[in-house]
Amino acid sequence: MKRRNLYSYILSGSLLFGACSLDELNPSGITVDKVAENKAGFEKLINSCYFDLPRYFYGRNLLLVTEGGTDLWTADLNSNNNQNYLKYASGGAMSLDMAKDYWNGAYDAINYCNLVIDRVGQVTDFASDEERNAKVAEAHFLRALYYFHVVEQFGASPLTLHETTEANTESVRVAPLEIYEKAILPDLRFAADNLPTIAAIAGKPSKKSALGLLARACLQTKQYGADTYLEEALATARKLIEQGANYQTQLFANFADNFNAANNKRNTEALFQITYSQSYGSTNVYDHNNDFKRFYCYPTAFGAIQLAGFQTTIGRWSGGNFMPSAHLMSVFRNPDGTLDPRYNLSFQTSWTSNVNYNWGRDALVQYDRNSATVQEGSNLPNGALAIKIGRPEESDYATEKPTRLSKNYLWVDLADLYDVDNRVKMRYTRVNQQPGQVDNPFISFYPSLTKFNSGSLISPRTNSFTSDASATVMRLGEVYLIAAEAEFHLRGATGTAANFVNVLRQRVNGQQIAAGDITLQFLLDERARELCGEYSRWYDLKRTGKLTKAYLMEKNPDVGQYFVDAIHSVRPIPQGQIDAISNPGGYQNPGY
User: Fold this and answer.
1) Does 507 fall in a domain?
2) Is residue 394 part of a domain?
3) The predicted structure's pLDDT at residue 26
4) Cβ atoms 161, 186 nearer than 8 A
5) Which residues partner with 352 through β-bridges?
6) Residue 4 has pLDDT above 50, yes or no
7) Does the predicted TM-score (pTM) go above 0.85?
């Protein structure tokens, strides 16, 4: 990548946390050499490595490029909103800058990490080599995390392992597996050996953080034709699973406890979390974690729920970015027709009214009410059930469905939302009011993921709401699924692989499986049941060879229809990078 005068950037941008130009003078006379002389200054350099995680990645927009464009989600209302991310530009030209924040943010942070790693030997007041290694291990861990996202988002990318000190506008892209082997895996091994068992303060990585990410990274190399690291993935996962007490981590007895506000900042299942602390640089105090907004449907489309005063508490929001796909809904259906418990533990499917609502004529027509039971002026009192989503696996479905249009609240069938071909239903045929086909009035009401409802809303600015919750980068539940998949790749469908899965199913009182149930698709579906929405699905599809048009057309055709195999498995290199280098020819990813 383009090399810049990093000294002024670090001093003005990171130590002072200002929004300064890269070309500014440094009138203070402070140099990086001076700052790195002692532990206090070195700690400030390390904190610079964290700056881009809450600024660009977790809690901001990372969900768009890690969950969007997959088999699990379409855009809100199946619209063309955020179409670059959720629908591959809906068949149009992809914006070349759609992922620039991840590229620029990652490489800025990698430069900080390199500086820290190269300068650690200058610090004169470390008490021991152990203390020195524990501090620099933070930079190794973070560099690996940034490179992981760069490689998986962009494919072949520039690899730099040392501090940038001079101008060089030539850029060479390095193959993904080489970046894993030269940066990601060695960094994580070093971090696992040297990070403390317990992080000194919240938001810092510990041994469990490095071990979890190492297991994930080793497994991810499978997509590059490398089986070399599968045994390491399994062994590392086993270490966390079997020696969890040594690393201060364990599964919650209750799956939902991962997402409770009371556990958010003391989450023993979380392996690494991003906190929104100004200790690590300016995080825009007015705009912390916004992931909680991403998955809400539009309950305020129904007049019994008014927007005014509605979006001031967690769980009362309207209008997100993601609508679940029919495939995501289907993976929670057990073979015997029952429902996997994680469905109700992960999704909100009912809402109450917040006004004293009387049905009007337009609403009666819009929602096709049976005029014999719901008439103009029929009342739905404040606090009553206003919207409920039903599905065939639920015990009351058979009795509720026949009267769904006779209720004074909205009882929405999943069949009102999805067709048998796995597409979202965009049209509805009225049977009670002005019969005929119209735009689907029920499309606003779909199951809404609640995994990010784990904090309290704050409103530092008028009409601006954000969450104080820490963002969980990875949790122990995923490690069990990494172990199961690594075992499957190594030795096939074994009882060992099934046992890893059954631990997660047992804690939700879910159905146990046998070795014969294990297939690659089963493991992918199990990851959806356990981890949907948790920053991983795009990477899962890449690793398992499922990020293809054929697969997406089968599972989620609303998205798959726009996917191009030769193009969309990586993101476009930002135009600013192309413009800045002296060798732009052939640098861009194919098709962009």
Assistant:
1) no
2) yes
3) 42
4) no
5) 385
6) no
7) yes
